[in-house]
């Protein structure tokens, strides 16, 4: 067994489509043993709050609209 330090550039974010967001959130909170954030904004649900990407790549966020569509937003810094 190795005592090597994990790589610094390991993946930290994944997008997994889910037809039942509440059930999926409970599942992944159990699997990851940590709470996941989900915020409600008006009639839309913020599925992933504004998140900074590595320098020069901008920011991203995801919301779920009133029809249940997941929408990804991206902007440069």
Please explain how this structure is put together.
This protein is of the alpha+beta class and 77 residues long. The chain has a domain at 38-77. The protein contains one helix and four strands; from the N terminus they run H-E-E-E-E. Strand 2 and strand 3 (59-64) form a beta hairpin.
Task: Outline the fold blueprint.
Elements: H1 21-32, E1 39-41, E2 44-52, E3 59-64, E4 70-75
Antiparallel strand pairs: 1-2, 2-3, 3-4
Key terms:
77 residues, alpha+beta, 4-stranded antiparallel beta sheet, 1 helix, 16% helix, flat
Order of helices and strands: HEEEE
Write down the overall geometry: flat
Poorly predicted segments? none
Report the biggest beta sheet as strand number plus sense, adding barrel if it closes.
4 strands, antiparallel
Mean pLDDT across every amino acid position: 76
Helix content: 10-25%
Q: What portion of the residues fall into strands of 2 or more residues?
A: 25-35%
